[in-house]
Amino acid sequence: MPPEELKEQMVNAATNALRDAREKFLSDNGVTCFSERNDDLLMWSHYGGQYKGFCLEFRTKHEPFNKLRDVQYVPGMPTLHIDTVIVDKNYDQLLDLYCTKSDVWSYEQEWRGFHEKAGTLFSYKPEALKAVYFGPDIERQALEIVCLILAGQNSDVELWEGKRSETEFKTQFSFFTYTSHIEAKRKGLA
Fold it and tell me: Hey, is 56 helix, strand or coil?
């Protein structure tokens, strides 16, 4: 067999093996994304239900948050060493690829957690939840529901109400204490 044909066969085999490894990783694993930021208007628009959602802050000393990997932002496409992926079954490089994004996304300051089984939820103990930040346009009923649920599960969670800054392109938060309507009536406040 001519060297050019052999080289083409080897490249095709390596490409197919890499595709199969990638597809197996994607079918077997899940990914959950987090950010260090809670004040970015663009992120509230994209990920926060057009400012009507809420953002959770976690204590990173608890699992699974202590196993998150930070995303690296680079100007060009990363290089993959196919031999170590296929021959050595070293999938760390694939994880690195799933934690690499273009530097235009660097404002997100993202971290990623990987699930060992695709389609599973990321779960955590109640004490891992530190705070909830409500978007500037959250509907009052939605805020009340979240606060009532938290009161029954972890009353130590900090609550922060968001509003758009008048001087910067960001969301500002003010701490508040939630008092249910029933509790307010009992205290003579409603």
Answer: strand
